[in-house]
Design brief:
4 strands, 7 helices, four-stranded mixed β-sheet, alpha+beta
Length: 136
């Protein structure tokens, strides 16, 4: 099952939810502003991350600027403690299943969550549209 962790204030979260619904992809939604992530949740998400905490930390948020910490010098446990204490440090949305994680909304990246047959159909439709545009 696909998981979508969002914050209502995040336009990327709203776009991701809209995209998933428009492609009939089943997902479990969690508003992390109402149900913050635990240390165990964060460990699970970090395991799926390609670049570790670099993928998860929002360097543009208020807490990041206020803390003035060199995150590169922190142990993983310290980083997790900070993300639990300051949830706005976490980029949103978090879209993941048992195998992969996407942080933030990217239409290209989110397509990887489409079932194989749906990706083929989408690709065929895009190619047909491209050919129509070229001949028009």
């Amino acid at each position: 099952m696909l998981n979508l962790y969002v914050a209502p204030s995040s336009s990327s979260s709203r776009r991701a939810e809209k995209w998933l619904k428009s492609h009939d992809i089943q997902f479990k939604k969690r508003d992390i502003s109402k149900r913050p992530l635990s240390a165990e949740d964060l460990k699970q998400i970090l395991r799926l991350s390609e670049n570790g905490s670099d993928d998860l930390i929002s360097k543009r948020c208020h807490s990041f600027k206020k803390l003035k910490i060199n995150f590169d010098n922190l142990r993983v446990s310290q980083l997790i403690d900070l993300m639990v204490k300051y949830p706005d440090l976490i980029r949103r949305p978090l879209i993941f299943d048992d195998r992969q994680l996407q942080v933030g909304f990217s239409e290209e990246g989110i397509r990887s969550f489409l079932p194989g047959e749906a990706r083929k159909t989408l690709l065929t439709d895009l190619l047909e549209q491209r050919n129509t545009d070229i001949t028009a």
